[in-house]
């Protein structure tokens, strides 16, 4: 249901005098439309967007998506909140040529086959873009002990950090690289 509501009928703009229209949506935090990789929403997703017609078959959509995510820290895996305030902007070309909804063409256009613009992909992209490539609970997160798994932010575990189980040596290398 939310999915259908997240489609903008571009034909609506044809009848508007100023050829610009504003849309706003609130998507419940529990939804199956937008996916947070490894995490979830802890607040509803608020979307505001303006669509304007530039020329025949060509539109500009600009908007803001606001929400809060719960994500695991990349080092210690504890769940933390990420405030999202992400702007998005796309040029849209209505075309009957072969299309790929997920990608912009070389001129930066997002092509759609009919005058119905699905917001789902745009919002998904904006949410993913808002997640930093390295998300940490705190700047100096100490991570987990690769020997016993203790969260080192809560205190030392007593393991000898140089005496690593050979089976975990690969993991140690991985963690060292991430630090
Ligand atoms: Zn952490
Ligand atoms: Zn340990």
Describe the structure.
It is a single chain. This protein is α+β, with helices and mostly antiparallel strands and 179 residues long. The protein folds into 2 domains: 2-130, no CATH class; 142-179, no CATH class. It is built from 3 helices and 8 strands, in the order H-E-E-E-E-E-E-E-E-H-H. The strands form 2 sheets. Strands 2, 3, 4, 5, 6 and 7 form a 6-stranded mixed beta sheet that branches. Strand 5 and strand 6 form a beta hairpin. It is elongated. Bound molecules: zinc ion (2 copies). Residues 73, 75-76, 78, 136-137, 141 line the site of one zinc ion (ZN). It comes from Proteinivorax tanatarense.
Defining key terms:
alpha+beta; 6-stranded mixed β-sheet; two-stranded antiparallel ribbon; 15% helix; binds zinc ion
SSE topology:
Elements: H1 2-5, E1 7-9, E2 20-27, E3 40-41, E4 45-55, E5 58-72, E6 79-94, E7 109-112, E8 116-118, H2 119-130, H3 169-178
Parallel strand pairs: 6-7
Antiparallel strand pairs: 1-8, 2-4, 3-5, 4-5, 5-6
SS elements, strand count: 8
Rg is 22 Å
Report the span from N to C terminus: 43 Å
Spans where pLDDT lies below 50 across 5 or more residues = none
The fraction of residues assigned to DSSP E strands is 25-35%
Biggest β-sheet, characterized? 6 strands, mixed
- Rough shape? elongated
Estimate percent helicity. 10-25%
Number of helices: 3
Organism: Proteinivorax tanatarense
Pfam family, one: YceD
InterPro entries: YceD
Protein name: DUF177 domain-containing protein
Can you summarize this structure?
By secondary structure, the protein is an alpha+beta fold. It contains three helices and eight strands, in the order αββββββββαα.
């Amino acid at each position: 249901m939310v999915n259908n509501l997240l489609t903008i009928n571009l034909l609506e703009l044809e009848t508007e005098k100023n050829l610009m229209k504003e849309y706003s949506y609130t998507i419940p935090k529990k939804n199956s439309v937008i996916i947070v990789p490894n995490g979830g929403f802890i607040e509803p997703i608020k979307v505001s967007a303006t669509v304007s017609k530039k020329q025949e078959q060509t539109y500009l959509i600009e908007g803001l998506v606001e929400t809060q995510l719960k994500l695991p820290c990349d080092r210690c895996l504890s769940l933390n909140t990420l405030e999202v305030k992400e702007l998005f902007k796309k040029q849209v070309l209505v075309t009957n040529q072969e299309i790929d909804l997920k990608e912009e063409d070389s001129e930066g256009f997002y092509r759609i086959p009919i005058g119905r613009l699905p917001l789902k992909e745009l919002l998904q992209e904006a949410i993913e873009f808002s997640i930093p490539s390295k998300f940490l609970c705190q700047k100096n997160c100490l991570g987990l002990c690769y020997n016993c798994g203790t969260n080192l932010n809560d205190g030392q575990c007593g393991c000898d950090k140089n005496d690593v189980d050979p089976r975990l040596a690969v993991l140690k290398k991985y963690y060292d690289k991430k630090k």
